[in-house]
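Chapter review: from sequence to fold.
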Amino acid sequence: MKKILILLLFFFSTQGFTASNTKVKVAIKPDNGDWLKDSIYPITLKEKMRMRYKGSVKFIMGDFDNDGVDDLFVLGTPNIKDLITGETANGKITINVACDVSSGSTSNCYSSKKRRILNIYSMKDNATYEKWNRNKQKWDTVTGFQATDVSDLVVNNNPIEMSAQGIQHILTADFNGDGVLDIFFGDSGVDLWDGKKTKMPGQNDHYYLSQADGTWLESTTTHVSGKGVKKGRGLKNFSHGFTTGDIDNDGDIDIVVTSLEWFGNNGQLLCYVNKGDGHMKVRRCGGEFGWA
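The token string follows.
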């Protein structure tokens, strides 16, 4: 009990708290030990996560279905060779590996389940199910936490060139005010190699809004506008940190993004100002660069 509470507090201190502008009760019920270590035949959830992702794993907990038990949002680079954040023999990332449409190759883009970078698990407490007992080599009937992968509810219809590249940490908040958590994660882009030189063009951040049908839809093209935003392409930036909060005291949740001085709008504080329904208007709100 004490161990899982300390673990969760550590995760929150490094990843940030879930925010919401609605009166949604959120409760954590770690009454059955560390469920990350519980056996999910034939391996544990923690081991599954280690095998699925090769690095840059971030996650946050928040109650998206409002049942009083925190659910799990996981962001990470799939453990597959030659993906967007992979490296070629010369130590650089080639344009075709980075999902550049003009290259004619899209096989390395994050578009399939195998290559998914955002996974969501619905957590239930006091669920009864069969669990493999490694020590006794038999199935036990147990009652406790159970995770259901609901990642198919994540929908992204954006152009391939808007695919995730240099992913940062993940935040959740109720941006559109419907009582369901939405998702935001930044993207710094990657250093691209065209055979002669490298360039850092930056990349758009990623913004998923909850929908009436229970899905989360990537909404950058329809719900982000303002300073530096290209219509239908989002804000290309060298994002390195971000947080949420009601910065203009109007009752909804906004986003503040920090960036390094590298390309375009970088080296500034940029604010995604919520118009009340999840539509974000980007404006410059500071002249300092920042890592986080």
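Two observations follow directly from the output. The radius of gyration is 20 Å. Helices lie at 2-15, 45-52, 220-223.
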